[in-house]
Amino acid sequence: MTMKMVNIHEVKARLSEFLNAVEQGEHVVICRRNQPVAELRKVAGTRTTPRALGMAKGRLSVPDSFFEPLPDDVLGSFYHASAVAAERGWHVAEGPPGELGEAKAPRRRKPRR
Fold first, then answer.
1. Could you give the C-alpha distances from 90 to 33, 69, 72, 76, 85, in angstroms and in order?
2. N or C: which end of the chain has fewer CB within 10 A?
3. DSSP of 15-48, one letter per residue?
4. Is 85 a member of any domain?
């Protein structure tokens, strides 16, 4: 494996050449005023075969307490007013009725100057 050290202006002018060199296995160190700043190198290959399922079987155990209902004070921390939430029978994944389904008008951005 070889390494090339080049300054930024040279990389700007000949980027495609350096990318070809990187594909061939070379490393390119990009310098600013002859001080290394960044390195170009080939990206590691991606997985071509799917991962095997069940590799962690037996390594994880979920206690029975995980499936028990949460205490009211914990449930209440999901809402601004825990008493109102409990009174209305809301569940953790739900918010007040109509909160999720209502479409909001898009906000207008200030024009750029």
1. 62, 14, 12, 10, 5
2. C
3. HHHHHHHHHTT-EEEEEETTEEEEEE-PPPPPP-
4. no
Q: Is the model's pTM score more than 0.85?
A: no
- List the domain range (segments joined by +) for residue 27: 3-40
Q: Is residue 33 part of a domain?
A: yes
Q: What is the C-alpha separation between 94 and 81, in angstroms, rounded?
A: 14
Residue with the two structure tokens 């029975």: 64
Q: Give the chain's domain count.
A: 1
Q: Which two tokens stand for residue 74?
A: 């914990």
pLDDT in tens, 12-64: 999 999 999 999 989 999 999 989 999 999 988 888 888 888 888 888 888 99
Share of the chain above pLDDT 90, in %: 33
Distance, in Å, from the CA atom of 89 to the CA atom of 78, rounded to the nearest integer, reads 13
C-alpha distances (whole Å) from 16 to each of 5, 10, 22, 50 are 16, 11, 10, 33
